[in-house]
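User: Teach me something about this protein's shape.
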Amino acid sequence: SGDFNLVSYQQFVKLIPSAMPIVVGLLKFMLGSCTGTSFVDSTSIEVCKAYRINRHKTFDGLAARSKTTKGWFFGFKLHLVIAPTGELIKVKFTPGNKDDRKALDEMTDGLFGKVCGDRGYIGKDFSAKLASKGIQVITRLKRGMKNMLMDMEDKMLLLKRSLIETVIGKIKFLGKFEHSRHRSVCNAFVHMTACLVNYQMQDDKPSIVSLLS
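Assistant: First, the predicted structure itself:
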């Protein structure tokens, strides 16, 4: 027992912020590169229960209230762009009310080719803006939109878009990515970034690369 000089839990919590530059730098170093086919999506990060929103102080001024298909939440969004191999290419944290299209527009550096997303990325001006950067956004049509011809390859990509939902589910499962007990902003983001590093180190990432080859 005398071989290790362990710190107390309270001291350990105080030391966590010092790991922020290392963890962020490690994640940035481990991010993959775009190969011309990518998947994009976002997920909510709830920082407190709904009945505590008005009393919540830790993320006051940073988190925001927004709505998903599951209902209202208070917190942040995690925006991801992944490769067909399940590897993370782009990662971005934003307040919960951030438009998914604006977040993707801020993550286009190094992206090219086809990016497959859900209906939240539909926008005529938005698509034209990304097209000028060499990026084609592929989504399903919203109800009432005029039907358009689509390449068979694009249809296959849309059928495999659930890959990124599987990736998000795995990230949230690893290390309890999302919980409502954070008492420090810095410690919270160190924890979430470390979960992303943990996922990126996994050998058994969800993948559809063999289906597209």
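Now, about its shape. The chain has a mean pLDDT of 87. Helices lie at 9-15, 20-30, 100-105, 124-131, 152-159, 162-173, 185-200, 209-212. If you'd like, I can walk through any region in more detail.
User: That's plenty for now, thanks!
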